[in-house]
Structure formats: structure tokens, C-alpha cells
Write a structure and sequence with these properties.
heterotrimer; A alpha+beta (about 525); B mainly alpha (about 100); C mainly alpha (about 110); B: about 100 residues; mainly alpha; about 80% helix; disordered N terminus; C: about 110 residues; 5 helices; about 0% strand; membrane (chain B); transmembrane (chain B)
Chain lengths: ~525, ~100, ~110
């Protein structure tokens, strides 16, 4: 019996400390990851100069092809970013780098559009797995946090004594009890999600985190492993394509040839990947005898992460010269895990499920962090200095990051569109905003800091539709309005939370036991 | 429950030791366990690498939990398992190097 | 993707979770004590059945593998929704399935 108790005890200590120390980190990772579910939509929102012309992909390709043939007839490659459901813009680029500077075209007129420079929703995506540190360091820090999360989840399950009995139990306005209920319920009911998202997150960079097997069987040479993994067929096509472009046969020596109209390949690509599933199309050696057309799907045609997959055609004859090979079972397992984490499949319904689950993960982590301070406050003997640190850090990280994200969206609209080094300024707005929130959290009493930051964030979010209507009225379309509406909805929720904190001011003066009541309602809200 | 009485100052070194053991020792343990798995699992090398590496996070997690659940001395003893595991994984590499 | 089918999956999942919840003694006593006690024992089988139905409906919306992911996500979310509705709006929590069915029927007739 005594032994049993001490195991629970040590698990409880492990849960508390692992949770507290990486909890702040985890909140940042989970919040930005949740926002990154809608990264493409945020990209679109953050460039209001782009318009949805409603043009279908076939017509868009026609526009892009004639534009490219006119401007860059001798380029080694043409790349066309197709308008999709999640980003209805048409972009083109020429030359080797697919990721290089892209020119945005108005799909109707074929004229160049110059959108504002912006960090875009991509910022949240990159922050999610690097925390804006150098990539090689960032992914290790995030990986460490994810491991701690895994440990915290399982130790949490071990110490939760009434996991089934309390399955649907939430008792509001009961101080610590409510915080615990809220934390437990959001953790238990979404346990599959928490476990899945954490483990699959680790699985994305699995070979970097754990190089042991590669060290044993490949002498630590990851490239050797990857080249063995690449299906033979694809490799050959790639080599053939490269040889045509560079080295062996200089471009001028290959005779000119009449390509099939590029728009034809849309239909053929869709026949393979499904309707509305194409993301981009590129041509190597355009208008030459060795021209190749490559059609790439958007991510999420299936569960497996299909990054970099493509269907290759001979551009002259139209025959298929390279199709994606089925992935071998082990690699498929890893790619399905990565796909489950990236959440690109299943359309908007699935994206919303992921988004809501992500928000609840954030609330679960936040409620755990707050629970720590609430619990500590009741223990009279506890070290108040450490408690005070935890309290202001909670506000600085939870409130501060939400404020910084909101500030970034506001900054995107407020900063002049043609400003020099605009991306850098947006970055300054984000981190400057966070720094301000941090200072504010340090200076104010905890409850006041909560109330003030939550109110401010709520107001900023609620005002986002107005801001958008005032500063980018022409850009309003379904996609951008949905972003505004979602922001306002989150503003409402945070506003309610703020109201629950503000509207019981007597509790600020009352004992610690009473103050918890207010915060209790906040968990209910953020969950 | 007897541990509750222990003063906080005396708990710290033990907690630190345990945390270090869990984090650093756990990684070393997982590393050598995955190395051994990579050598022992049947199949083509690529498949073995992927499967052995994918379960590594599970091994690490379980080790950390175990390291906190058992008495510290027993947890420390687990470090002794690391060299043999690593040896299983790396002996052909080492042997080839020596020859 | 059909919105009404999506709503239907959610509602069925919610109803399933509600039935499972009422199958527990604590919640039955608190929320449904007016009903005959013998009904309680049918709650859990009914809940499981409804959850299975939700899975079946999800398969009409998504391919098999994706459907399982969506199903797990939806029953988690609806369970959590139920959890927070119960203390704050118990009547709404209990009548939501009925309301939703009425709305769906009206919607189906109207469209």
C-alpha cells in the first residue's frame, strides 16, 4: 500500500514539474500550431492586394502559359502556382528554384499584382516547430518539449484516480476543484488527440531526434538512407529531367518542339488525384523536344503526407513518364503519422476539427499552468517567491502570446503596404507586443494583469472585422471574412473570460480561495 | 507517505539526480536500445531503421516514467544495461574498424 | 462536402456521448431521476450504438481512414461540449439532440 502511494506521488511530482517547466513552451507550440492549421487562409488574409477572380484552374493555366511564353521563353523551367480553395491566387516563376520569388498574376487580366510583403500564416507554422530559433536548435527544443508532453500525458493518466468515474464531470465555481475538473476533462476526453498530435509531431523529425538506427546500419549517413528510400522510378525521371536541363545537353542543342497546351494536363492530373486536388504545375525545358510537365497535388489528397509528390508527363506527346510509386509499408507508417500531424486531408470540416482540438489542447495546458498557481496559493507554507514567478509568467506566456499573435494580424493591416523591410517590421510588432505584455504582466498584480490583457486581446479580436472593412474593404471575400469572423468569435470567448475576471472585483481582495472562482470560469471559457 | 516529512532542501539533490537520469540517462538508454533493435530486427535495412526509430519515443517515455516510479538506486542500476545494448548494436561496426 | 451530413455526424456523436453519460449512475441521478430507473441500463448500449452510427455517417463523408480520424475528433469534441453544457445549461444539454433533429428535418424539407 505504501509503495503504491509513493508511485502515485512520484508520478504526480513528475507530472507537475515536467508540465510546469515545459508548459509555457508547450503553450506557445500548441497555440501557433493550432493557428497554423489555417496557415494558407492566413496567408491569403495577410495579402489583401490579391483578389479571388473565381477563375478555374484550366483558364488560369492558359493565362499563366501565355504570360510565361511572352516574358520568359528561354527559361529552363516554368512554375505555375494554381489557384486553390485555400489560396485562390495565381502565381508564376521561372528558372530552377520552385521556392524562389513568385510573381502574382491577376487571373483575369494577366497583369502582375504586387502584394504587400508579409510574414503570413507561414510565420505561425515555422514558429510552431522552431520557436523562431535557428532551425537546427529549434526543432530540438520543440522535440524536447514534445517528449516532456508525452511523459506528462502518461503520468497524468496514471495519477488520475477516477478517470472513468469523472468522465463527464465538471463542477464550476468550486475553486481548485473546478480547475482540476476542467484540466482533467479536457485532457481525458481529448486524450487520443493529445497523444496522437504529440507522438506524430515527434515522428516528423524522427531520424534527427534518434539517429541510433541510422548510425548502426548506415554509419550515420542519412542521405544514403534517403536515396535508398526513394523509389527507383522517380529517381530515373528526375535524372533524365536534370540531364536535359543542365550538364550533358545544353538547352540550345535540343530542338524546339510544339508542346501540348498546358491546360490539358489539369484534367489529366485531376483524373489521377481527384477534382480540385492540384496545387501547382511546372514545365522543364519549355517548348523543347525534351520538355516535361509536372503536376503536383495539394497536400492532403490522402492521409499520407504527400509533400513533393508529382505526376510527370512528356509535354510533347502527353504520355505519362513518371507516376508516384506506392510507399513501402514502414515509410508509409511514418508518412501517415506525419500526415496526421500536418492535417492537410479531409477538407475544411477536418481542418475545423483539428483547429478546435488544438484550441482545447492549449486550454488544457493553460489550465494546468494556472492550476499549479491556484494549488500553491492554498498551501500556506509554500514558497511564495516561486509562486509569484509562476503567476506572472503564466500571464506573460498565455496572455502575452495571444496578444502577440493578435498584434501581428493588426500590424499586417496597419503597417504601410509598401514599407521597406516590411516583414521585419511585422516581426518587430509580434515580439515587441509580446515584450510589452511580459513587462505588463510583471508589473501588475496577477488578477489585474489577467483581466487587462484578456480585455485588450478580446477587444482587438472583436474589432478585426471592422479593421478589415476600414483598411482593406476591397479585399473582403469569403475566405477573409471567415478569418475575421473566427477572430471575432475568439474575441467573444476571451471577452467572456475577461468579463468573469473583471466582474467579481471583490474577489481580488478576498482570500485566495475566493479568487479561484473567477479563474475557474476562465478555464470553462478557454476550453 | 513517509517521504512527505523530508525537508525540501534534502529532496532537491535526489530530484535533480532523478531528472538527470531520466533525461540524459533515458536518452542514452533509448539510443542504445534502438541501436540494438536496429541490429536484431529482421528485414531490409531501410525498414528496420524506420521501425526501430519510430518506437524510440515510446521507449524513452516509458523509461522516464519508470525512472521516476522506482527507487533511485534501482533506477541508477539501469545504466548498466546501456553498454551491452550499445555493443549489440555496434559490434560489427567496431569489429570492422578494428580489423 | 455536405454541411448537413457533417452536422448530422456531430449530433449523432453528441447524442451517443449523452446517452453514455446518462448511463452513469451519478449523472442519471442528477439529470434524469424523473424517468423510470430501469431505463438507465439501456443508456450505454444506446450510446454505443449511436457512436457506431456516427462512425458510419462519417464514412459517408470521408474515405475510411480519414473517417476514423474525424470520428475520434468529433466524439471527443462533442463529449467536451456536453461536459461544459451540463452544468451551465443542463436543459439545453439534454434537449440538443431533439432540437438538432427538428432543425435537420426542417432543413431537409426546406432545401
Amino acid at each position: 500500500m505504501a509503495k503504491q502511494a509513493s508511485v502515485t506521488q512520484s508520478m504526480s511530482g513528475l507530472h507537475t514539474w515536467a508540465g510546469l517547466i515545459v508548459g509555457w513552451l508547450l503553450f506557445a507550440i500548441f497555440l501557433t500550431g493550432t493557428l497554423a492549421v489555417f496557415d494558407k487562409e492566413l496567408n491569403w488574409w495577410m495579402q489583401p492586394e490579391l483578389h479571388d477572380t473565381g477563375l478555374d484552374q484550366v483558364s488560369a493555366v492558359r493565362v499563366a502559359e501565355s504570360w510565361l511564353r511572352e516574358r520568359n521563353p528561354d527559361a529552363s523551367a516554368w512554375n505555375i502556382g494554381l489557384p486553390t480553395e485555400r489560396g485562390p491566387s495565381l502565381s508564376v516563376s521561372s528558372g530552377e528554384q520552385r521556392r524562389g520569388q513568385r510573381t502574382q498574376l491577376d487571373a483575369d487580366s494577366g497583369e502582375v499584382v504586387v502584394p504587400r510583403e508579409t510574414l503570413g500564416g507561414n510565420f505561425f507554422f515555422h514558429f510552431h516547430y522552431t520557436l523562431h530559433m535557428p532551425r537546427s536548435i529549434g526543432i530540438w527544443v520543440v522535440g524536447f518539449a514534445a517528449m516532456a508532453m508525452l511523459v506528462a500525458i502518461i503520468s497524468g493518466v496514471i495519477i488520475h484516480k477516477k478517470i472513468f468515474k469523472d468522465f463527464f464531470t465538471f463542477r464550476p465555481a468550486k475553486g481548485q476543484r473546478s480547475w482540476l475538473d476542467g484540466h482533467n476533462a479536457s485532457a481525458v476526453l481529448l486524450l487520443p488527440f493529445h497523444l496522437m498530435i504529440t507522438y506524430t509531431g515527434l515522428a516528423i523529425f524522427f531520424l534527427i531526434y534518434m539517429p541510433a538506427a541510422t548510425d548502426v546500419l548506415y554509419g550515420g549517413d542519412r542521405e544514403a538512407l534517403f536515396s535508398e528510400l526513394r523509389p527507383g522510378n522517380e529517381q530515373q525521371v528526375e535524372r533524365a529531367g536534370r540531364a536535359g536541363e543542365g550538364g550533358r545537353a545544353p538547352r540550345a542543342e535540343v530542338p524546339a518542339a510544339q508542346m501540348l497546351p498546358l491546360e490539358q494536363f489539369i484534367g489529366r492530373g485531376e483524373a489521377y488525384y481527384g477534382e480540385d486536388m492540384l496545387g501547382s504545375l511546372s514545365v522543364s525545358n519549355p517548348d523543347r523536344a525534351n520538355a516535361r510537365v509536372e503536376v503536383r497535388p495539394v497536400m492532403g489528397t490522402r492521409l499520407e503526407l504527400t509533400k513533393g509528390e508529382s505526376l510527370v508527363f512528356n509535354a510533347i506527346t502527353g504520355e505519362v513518364v513518371g507516376a508516384p510509386q506506392p510507399t513501402r509499408t514502414t515509410l508509409l507508417t511514418q508518412k501517415v503519422m506525419a500526415g496526421l500531424h500536418f492535417a492537410q486531408f479531409g477538407g475544411y470540416a477536418m481542418r475545423w476539427i483539428y483547429f478546435l482540438c488544438g484550441l482545447i489542447s492549449c486550454a488544457m495546458i493553460a489550465s494546468g499552468l494556472v492550476l499549479y498557481t491556484v494549488k500553491r496559493r492554498r498551501q500556506v507554507k509554500s514558497d511564495t517567491r516561486w509562486l509569484r514567478q509562476a503567476e506572472w509568467l503564466n500571464v506573460a506566456v498565455i496572455g502575452g502570446l495571444m496578444f502577440a499573435c493578435t498584434a501581428l494580424l493588426w500590424g499586417n493591416r496597419m503597417l504601410p503596404a509598401n514599407m521597406a523591410e516590411r516583414e521585419l517590421w511585422e516581426l518587430r510588432v509580434f515580439f515587441g507586443g509580446w515584450l510589452l505584455a511580459l513587462v505588463h504582466a510583471r508589473l501588475r498584480a496577477p488578477l489585474r494583469a489577467w483581466a487587462e490583457q484578456l480585455t485588450l486581446i478580446a477587444l482587438l479580436l472583436l474589432a478585426m472585422p471592422v479593421l478589415d472593412m476600414l483598411l482593406a474593404p476591397k479585399a473582403l471575400d469569403g475566405l477573409r471574412l471567415s478569418v475575421d469572423a473566427s477572430a471575432a468569435a475568439m474575441g467573444l470567448i476571451l471577452g467572456w473570460a475577461a468579463w468573469r475576471v473583471v466582474c467579481q472585483p471583490q474577489a481580488v481582495k478576498k482570500t485566495a480561495g475566493e479568487t479561484k472562482k473567477i479563474r475557474t470560469s476562465r478555464t470553462g471559457v478557454t476550453s | 507517505m513517509s517521504r512527505v516529512a523530508t525537508p525540501a532542501a534534502r529532496l532537491w539533490p535526489a530530484a535533480l539526480a532523478r531528472t538527470l537520469l531520466a533525461v540524459v540517462g533515458g536518452y542514452a538508454f533509448t539510443y542504445s536500445a534502438v541501436a540494438a533493435l536496429a541490429r536484431l530486427l529482421p528485414g531490409e535495412p531501410v525498414d528496420v531503421v524506420i521501425s526501430a526509430t519510430l518506437v524510440s519515443f515510446l521507449i524513452y517515455t516509458l523509461y522516464v516514467l519508470w525512472a521516476f516510479a522506482v527507487p533511485l538506486r534501482r533506477a541508477l542500476l539501469s545504466l548498466l544495461v546501456i553498454p551491452p545494448l550499445a555493443l549489440i548494436g555496434f559490434w560489427p561496426n567496431l569489429f570492422a574498424g578494428a580489423a | 462536402m455536405s454541411v448537413s451530413l457533417f452536422v448530422a455526424v456531430f449530433v449523432v456523436a453528441y447524442s451517443g456521448m449523452l446517452a453514455c453519460c446518462l448511463g452513469m449512475e451519478r449523472h442519471w441521478k442528477k439529470r434524469a431521476s424523473r424517468l423510470p430507473t430501469s431505463w438507465r441500463r439501456y443508456c450505454r448500449p444506446l450510446g454505443v450504438l449511436l457512436l457506431a452510427l456516427a462512425a458510419y455517417l462519417a464514412m459517408q463523408l470521408w474515405p475510411l481512414a480519414m473517417a476514423w480520424v474525424a470520428w475520434l475528433g468529433l466524439i471527443s469534441l462533442s463529449g467536451l461540449g456536453l461536459l461544459f453544457l451540463l452544468p451551465y445549461a443542463p436543459r439545453l444539454a439534454l434537449s440538443l439532440p431533439v432540437l438538432a433533429v427538428v432543425l435537420l428535418v426542417i432543413g431537409a424539407i426546406w432545401v
